[in-house]
């Protein structure tokens, strides 16, 4: 290889330097966790005032054409399409040898499109989904301990086994200040199937539950059960709309299943069928215990 070509493939990043695209709840929490550990973090946000606020207390500066090539790790923490668009526009600025991850709650569309953008590039894209969050959004609610002991789901790229292990070990090192409790490897397809049940369905049910007119009269009559079931009714509607539709097949199936199950309870209640209702309740209790014992 000519000297010029070798120079073009030489890393330009500063070791451990991180760029965060999107400084909302997730991106802001990554930035705060990494900065608190002494890592140099640069950030970008569509609303520039958020970037300016982050510069006061967290990030070292703005993620620009000049600082992108200096980052060893870039975290795409925006909405799905924003993350895809940013990577497409900035792909040629990213340093050889750098790692790019995302935090998006769906993986098929992200891994397909970002994987295609990364083809032929000297850097690596790894699909990721940190299993943490709150019902609130925005940089103001981000916190450095957001990911402590939380699982991180990782969709490894298609590459040689030894290269994949090396990339994952580097990624664990780069994310060490975040304090993830585990790293779970998955395919994009399996991730989206599982997340439709464990996360997306919960948001749909919670959001629908508070639409009862009785919800407006709950004060003085509600305790833990109400709080647990309604916590994620409060959500970022534009973001969750995008996530739901990007996983429409899996989510629709889960919604259909819960509608069928709820109908069985309603039928037993309407019929005043105590035996049937008790069977349904006992079955749910058993399945919950079995799931928790796994």
From TrEMBL:
Ribosomal protein listed as a keyword: no
Domain of life of the organism encoding this protein: Bacteria
InterPro entries from the UniProt entry: 6-PGluconate_DH-like_C_sf, NAD(P)-bd_dom_sf, PDH_C, PDH_N, Preph/Arog_dehydrog, Prephen_DH
UniProt keyword list: Oxidoreductase
PROSITE patterns recorded: PDH_ADH
Gene3D superfamilies on file: 6-phosphogluconate dehydrogenase C-terminal like domain, NAD(P)-binding Rossmann-like Domain
Every Prephenate/arogenate dehydrogenase domain range: 16-294
GO molecular function: NAD+ binding; prephenate dehydrogenase (NAD+) activity; prephenate dehydrogenase (NADP+) activity
GO biological process: tyrosine biosynthetic process
Family: Belongs to the prephenate/arogenate dehydrogenase family.
Protein name, as recorded: Prephenate dehydrogenase
Source organism (scientific name): Tractidigestivibacter scatoligenes
Upper lineage: Bacteria, Bacillati, Actinomycetota, Coriobacteriia, Coriobacteriales
